Every structure is written in C-alpha cells, then in structure tokens.
Amino acid sequence: MAEFKITQAQKELVEKLGVFYEKSGMQPAACRVMALLIVSDQTELTFEEILHTLGISKSATSGAINLLLTANRLEYITRPGDRKRYFRAKILNWKVDMLQNMSQMTSIGTLLKEINKQRPKASKEFNNILAEMISFLEFLNAEIPFLLKKWESKK
Amino acid sequence: MAEFKITQAQKELVEKLGVFYEKSGMQPAACRVMALLIVSDQTELTFEEILHTLGISKSATSGAINLLLTANRLEYITRPGDRKRYFRAKILNWKVDMLQNMSQMTSIGTLLKEINKQRPKASKEFNNILAEMISFLEFLNAEIPFLLKKWESKK
DNA sequence: TATTTAGTTCTGCAAATTCAGAACCAAGTA
DNA sequence: TACTTGGTTCTGAATTTGCAGAACTAAATA
Lengths: 155, 155
Description:
The structure is a homodimer.
Chain A: H1 8-22, H2 28-39, H3 47-54, H4 58-70, E1 74-79, E2 82-89, H5 94-105, H6 108-118, H7 124-154
Antiparallel strand pairs in A: 1-2
Chain A binds a DNA duplex through helix 4 and strand 2.
C-alpha cells in the first residue's frame, strides 16, 4: 500500500470545497472525493488512496466514484500492466460545465413561459415581471457564448 | 372560508415548478408554496388559502411560510381591520436575486484561489486550468452589471 | 489450484428530513 | 367572560439518505 498522505491544511480545504459541492445536492462522500482530487498534490489517485485518505468505506468509495463517473465529473486512466484505475477530476472541460450550469439556470425560462401563458390578463404587473424575467433569461442564454469569446480575446 | 380553487392544469404547473425549486435544496412544502404563489391567478393568498389549496397541514404551512420569509422569497401585506396576512412571492427583486445567484456561483473563485496557492508547482497543467477558471469567474463577476445594462438598453 | 488485487453489491443501521396532528396562544369579537 | 381567528410550537411517526461492514466476484498472479 502506497503511503499517500495529505496535510492538515489540505484536509481543511477538502472539507471546505466538499461543503461547497454539497450545496449542489450531491452526497457528502462524493463531494469529498471531488474535493480531494482538486486539492491533492497528486492529480491522479487510486481507489485505495481515496478510501484511505478520506477514511471512508469501500462501499462509500465505490458509490461515490461511480456517481461522479456517470455525472461526468471524474475520469480515470489506466497504466499498462496495472489493474488499478487512476481517477482524476474532469476539470478540463470546465467551460462546458459552466455553460451547462448556466443554461441549467436559464432552464426555468421554459417553465416560466408555460406559466405565463395560463396567467389571467388581469394581474398585469405580476405578468410583466414574469415576462421580463423570461426575456432576461433568454438574453442571458444567447449572451453566454459571446462572453466566453470576449474573455478569450482579453487574456 | 373563501372558496379559492385552482385548476388541474395549474396544479400540475405548481408541481413542476415545485420540483424545480426542490433542486435548490429547499423542502418540498416550501417549494409548493412558492410555486403556488407564482402560478395562481391571485398573487396574494392567505395562510388558509395556501393550506387548503395545497392540502398540507397547518404546521407544514407555518413552517414553509416562515422559511420563505426568512429566506426573503416571500413577503406579506395586511389590510386595515383584517388580521390575516396576504402572502405573495417576492419576485419584484428578481434582478437582485439573479445577481446574488450568479455571484454565489462565482463565490467558488475565492476558494479556488486558496487551493491554488497551496498546490505544488509541479502539477503545471492542472494549476493552469485552475488559474483559468479563477480568471473566468472574476471576469464573469465583473461582467454581470454590464450584462444587465446591455439588456436594459436593448428592450 | 490457491491467493491476491481491485473493486462491486447487499444488508441493515443511524441520522436527518419532513410533515401531520394536537395542544397551545394572543388578539379581537360576541 | 367565552368564543373565534390566525396562526405557532411541540411531539412523534414515516420516509429518505448515507454509509459501514461483510460477502461476493472477476482477473491476475503464485
């Protein structure tokens, strides 16, 4: 067993980042795994290293890893003549993630439209606000690609 | 008891929007209350109307309403000589909400910076990606006000 | 063939969440 | 003073979640 260790300071960062991820509704163990792979000096860790460093059970580790793999937050590489998988955070496509994240935020737009359609003409002020929100969400959605471009060119 | 009712279609919209709100981690009952106040023809509903329309208990209604009040998602008005409170969704400041929402998203930037500081110089590629994310989040945060302005002027 | 490795799957418990029901309370009304 | 109204607060029960532990498996190795 390779003796992989992280410092106290790193442990604290794992917890902090873990809690941040928890806000998105993911289960604690999976959040710790994600956080560990970001904070750790080594960017590629094995099942055993994750399990030992976080002090969680095999089943929890297995569950967390598979959750993250299907959520496309993790990937792994293998090495010739080595049965272990080396997991790493899939942050290379953070741009895609962020765009998805934002368009997910704007996904309420569709629902709001549906709601606005059935609202009575009477409640004008309220309807107008809804319409404004929808309009802004649409605008935002359209604007995101340009934002990315603008940032790229500014670097 | 005023006989306030919503249609089947509206009930379905309340559920849909309710589920959407649930994704943000709020408890189901509170999400239904929010959704009802958006979908309903009447924009101001009493405790009793909410309770009856959603078919939930007094305690659940009380809990949900107070949760939403402290979360600043709801407000209420009163009428002279009427002890009832009339609750309504606080969507008027959706712009503020959305900005908060976005800056909350960018709040991970601070944490990422902290993490990047402690990362070893060795893992260069990984560190560069982190640095890029941080840079983009900062850019985004700075850009949001301009986005709002741009949208306002386009209307 | 037995053993090790790298996990997966199943069972079940412990904790947390969520809500209903009932008791309660304070202000206004009869 | 008793009753009604518009809630709040306090159990407790039903789910749901999250994970440990143990048994299991498939591939590689001895």
